[in-house]
Amino acid sequence: xxxxxxxxIKFTLCLILGILLAKLITISTxxxxxxxxxxxxxxxxxxxxxxxxKRFVFIYGISTYITFLFFGLFLTNINEDLRDASHFSHAxxxxxxxxxxxxxxxxxxxxxxxxxxxxxxxxxxNTKRVSGKALLNIKxxxxxxxxxxxxxxxxxxxxxxxxxxxxPDQFSYKKYLDKQQVHYQLYADHTTLFNLPHTSTxxxxxxxxxxxxxxxxxxxxxxxxxxxxxxxxLILGQRQNITKAVYDNYTNAGAIHILxxxxxxxxxxLLLLNLIFSPLEQxxxxxxxxxIILLILLWTYALIAGGSASIIRATTMFSIVAIGINxxxxxxxxxxxxxxxxxxxxxxPNFLFDVGFQxxxxxxxxxxxxxxxxxxxxxxxxxxxxLLWQTLTVTIAAQFGIIPISLYYFHQFPSLFWLSNLxxxxxxxxILGLGLLVITLALLSVPKSFISDAFGxxxxxxxxxxxxxxxxxxxxxxxIPFTVVQVVVSYVFIFTIxxxxxxxxxxxxxxxxxxxxxxxxxxxxxxxxxxxxRFLVFHKNRSTIIGQKHNNRxxxxxxxxHAESNTIIRSYAVKNALNTTTSKPLNSVYKLKNNYVLxxxxxxxxxxxxxxxxxxxxxxxxxxxxxxxIDSLQPKGIIADGNNYKSYINKWTTTCKxxxxxxxxxxxxxxxxxxx
Length: 676
Description:
The protein is of the alpha+beta class. 51% of the residues lie in helices and 14% in strands. The strands form four sheets. Strands 1, 2, 3, 4, 5, 6, 7 and 8 form an eight-stranded mixed beta sheet that branches. A five-stranded mixed beta sheet has the order 14-13-12-11-20, with helices on one face.
């Protein structure tokens, strides 16, 4: 099939290129708007000039593609909140000591170990009306309940910029929040928040109230916390209350997509609704009426389920599918996918950088491309084997699309994914249908019954099954290094394999072999990238972690046991394809070719003979006279890790500033890194 015969696919690719270009170069919103308008005018003009001159129609095509590229550039710029003159960041005056922040609660997030977290819309800074989104962290306590959606509060705590990670190759929560247009956060507790009266309620507020009512009604069925958390995730799209243990079980089993309301769930719900309302087709104008009802119900469900990015994506795609099916328009799945991508990126260009967005479309494209090929390998005679075979081929086909992205972001591969999906996916429509029935019964105040008990039992079986899959640690491959170049080359290989199957000619055989060579070259390149030596002092509060890299080997020294399995070390080792050794106790001196690093711990004792010390690492808050140490050793710099009292660090900072000596504080400047 010639995919590029569909104009919408080409337009969508140009829009994507424009969005990527906006992230690579800095161009003002006004200039990008002018360029988009100019090329739109040129394209319209070329249409009238060249519409009867077929030889030159390609010029019109090129102009059209450039127009969409600049539209992608412009849309990305206008969607950058920080460029908006009304954004609250422009109203923050660093010289003003007191600020009154007024905000509206927008969305409840999964809490961490210390805080409940919310996305909030900033309404006012002091008396100035502003806009923009921020992250609110509220210290946990056992007295206060969660903040309701749409509630308005005022506080005098400061808006703080979200900080980048202090260690190399560590997961950057800042980058993740940047994609959500969140650049600032608030740290507060309930004593610093003051509730303001409000009369307006948004659709999200009504949806949250309805979800709370559903949960109140479900209490009559005596579900456990784990059962309720899965019900909320599976049907209502709320994963905040899932325990870490249960969440990790689903993740390690390769079944986390079951808990994220997305294409799978919305597709099943569309099938159920399509079946329920099929009698309407007998009426005059029945199909358009049925289509409108389906769209209303789909988007109502999307709103009730929280309106997250994954739900909006899935609902948009299946809305287009519903229109095509019920109005009997000839549709092509690639065309449908391209339309949904195009519409979503027009609304929010940053969706392109969302991991869920990438995984969703990669999985669907792989399924429609490879599942028919795999299904032809065997034709079972009976219904049950046929259903299981179809499920298995869908699951395996999806992996062709998601493995490169998954390896890049998560660096692990659950090799029992096929078993997880083979057992659960065939029954997921029944599980969702049963769940919707139970919620309906709860809303009608129907007492606890066999149906509600059966659903709770099904949830328990799912949790136990995925817990068992997760416990098979031998089949969970962890810490797989994978770069963005390898992602691109992997998709080139997958594409050439697909083409080779269909055309079976020398051209595609040659291109497939070239793609294999490219994959090998990426691994060779990664190997040579590990060459060289490096000394690192990582930042970790209340602990000391030192790393010495020699080519592809990383030796860890620390005052904590099994430091090699710490997240900081694992992230650095995986991203750089390094092999770590079992951590060792701290040394007093480290040699870096011709340089020496002295470690001064809580004892504050050092005795160096015949060695010129280049750097001194202060750890465990040593009581010493830093000026005397500097006079004695004449170091090139002083390093203080996260294992020191703040008061000591402040004192050392003053001393080094006075002596004009470089002072490296890992808590501010990040990990100390020295190549040698």
